[in-house]
Amino acid sequence: MSNQSLADFSSAHLPKVNQVMRDFLQKVTTEQSLWEAMDYSVSAGGKRIRPLLFLATLDFLGVELKKEHYEVAAALEMVHTYSLIHDDLPAMDNDDLRRGKPTNHKVFGEGMAILAGDGLLTEAFHLVASVDLTSDLRVMLLEKLASAAGTNGMIAGQTADIEGENRQLDLKQLQKTHQRKTGALILFAVQAACKLAQAEQEIEDLMTVYGENYGIAFQIKDDILDVVGDEQELGKKTGSDESLNKSTYTSLLGIEGAQKKLEHHIDQAVSSLHDVQDKISKKDVSLLEKLIWKLR
Amino acid sequence: MSNQSLADFSSAHLPKVNQVMRDFLQKVTTEQSLWEAMDYSVSAGGKRIRPLLFLATLDFLGVELKKEHYEVAAALEMVHTYSLIHDDLPAMDNDDLRRGKPTNHKVFGEGMAILAGDGLLTEAFHLVASVDLTSDLRVMLLEKLASAAGTNGMIAGQTADIEGENRQLDLKQLQKTHQRKTGALILFAVQAACKLAQAEQEIEDLMTVYGENYGIAFQIKDDILDVVGDEQELGKKTGSDESLNKSTYTSLLGIEGAQKKLEHHIDQAVSSLHDVQDKISKKDVSLLEKLIWKLR
């Protein structure tokens, strides 16, 4: 709640999220090989953006972080991790490197990678269904998570994404694809936190503006890094969008245009955050503001 | 509730389950191609054993079937259908024929088949989360469904199954694999119905014996048909267990031994059903008894 650094916040809370993921998966998984495949991807690091957004939003709205929040954050990261494993498969994006390590199917084979993804997705719902909150809240979270991850959310976005290969999209189509592919789960992180914080509708609406702009900014940054980023640092192959002939923010707007659009969405998000701060009388620069500044 | 035939029961209720699946998927899916891939497998027929078990158990326990029951039955069949799509993939069982039609990836490609499976799984949870029952009941159903479909259930069984290729399993290992691969979802059908019917624990325990024996009998029958069945009639390739060098009930016990074991589990299931009938004072031969007789 104080003017803490992102690094401090991360090291105070993310290890607990990681621990929940590992403990829960170990508890519910009866095949050693399956557990190893899931744990490989879950333990491969990653920026944990979605758990951070979820936890930082709760913190921003004055909620003391507890076990149930780490559990929801863990489920969210499990859904994200499943999507990476499946997206990396040869039949999809065919990536060999992820988070600086060989992709799941490169290590465990395609069959096991499909099962590991299926397992992470299913157990994410299992985890939320058994979290220590009222049934009403659990149902709310499950409904929102399934919706964000589902066929009008992340899966629809991934469908549009692979169908967009070798096809020229305009900016509106591109945005619609990403709003679902990456935006929906990011928005879940922010909105679910608002619900658990029992935020007023006006606050949730403003936070939604933050979440939507964060999602777009995140994708623009991802596109820029795919052109100018360092493979070693990113832990994944760059230039893959161009080789798959995908429309991206940089292919449509150029690097400079994309950068300008990125700034615009960061500004929108920050402005919306400041409106919330005025309403809840917080003065410190928030973790959420620091989080989005990192996309510059 | 009367002494109705299975055919009458099926034609009275299964079309409603099919309708829920199609309507829900159409409502929540924003990409036409994704919807077509999911609908292809959902509409490809199949015996609808799991929805039938669920609905017939509710009927057996005196519950009048309503919209919410068709919705749960639909979700259950969606989870089953996703598992078929993924299991048929080249990286798994590599099957070309399913329910008398080319498998999903043969028609839509591997990438889309993976996404269609992911979509059906996710939207099954979405459907249960939004079903018209109390939050407590929805959470109970979601927890049980995720557990049955998860990494100590169906996915663990499928893992053990593909790892069992080219390896000799004993009867106990084989049974453990199938208890999870097919048994868990079948047991969900029966147990979830008991919960919704508010059956006493004693009744649920007896119904669990029925469900467990049904699951084993179902798998033995499947193994026998893979050896002696007619491809045209089954709508899938036979002899695939042998070609994948899988341990099966027939490879371990011979056809005659497997048939004897099948009879044993049918008898156990029926005996347990009769115990329930004594307790709830029902005299007619139940649909559940007719359902399991069909496995002879």
TrEMBL record, chains A, B:
<dbReference type="Pfam" id="PF00348">
    <property type="entry name" value="polyprenyl_synt"/>
</dbReference>
<dbReference type="GO" id="GO:0004337">
    <property type="term" value="F:(2E,6E)-farnesyl diphosphate synthase activity"/>
</dbReference>
<keyword id="KW-0414">Isoprene biosynthesis</keyword>
<dbReference type="InterPro" id="IPR000092">
    <property type="entry name" value="Polyprenyl_synt"/>
</dbReference>
<keyword id="KW-0479">Metal-binding</keyword>
<keyword id="KW-0460">Magnesium</keyword>
<keyword id="KW-0808">Transferase</keyword>
<comment type="similarity">
    <text>Belongs to the FPP/GGPP synthase family.</text>
</comment>
<protein>
    <recommendedName>
        <fullName>Farnesyl diphosphate synthase</fullName>
        <ecNumber>2.5.1.10</ecNumber>
    </recommendedName>
</protein>
<dbReference type="InterPro" id="IPR008949">
    <property type="entry name" value="Isoprenoid_synthase_dom_sf"/>
</dbReference>
<dbReference type="InterPro" id="IPR033749">
    <property type="entry name" value="Polyprenyl_synt_CS"/>
</dbReference>
<dbReference type="GO" id="GO:0005737">
    <property type="term" value="C:cytoplasm"/>
</dbReference>
<dbReference type="GO" id="GO:0016114">
    <property type="term" value="P:terpenoid biosynthetic process"/>
</dbReference>
<dbReference type="InterPro" id="IPR053378">
    <property type="entry name" value="Prenyl_diphosphate_synthase"/>
</dbReference>
<dbReference type="GO" id="GO:0046872">
    <property type="term" value="F:metal ion binding"/>
</dbReference>
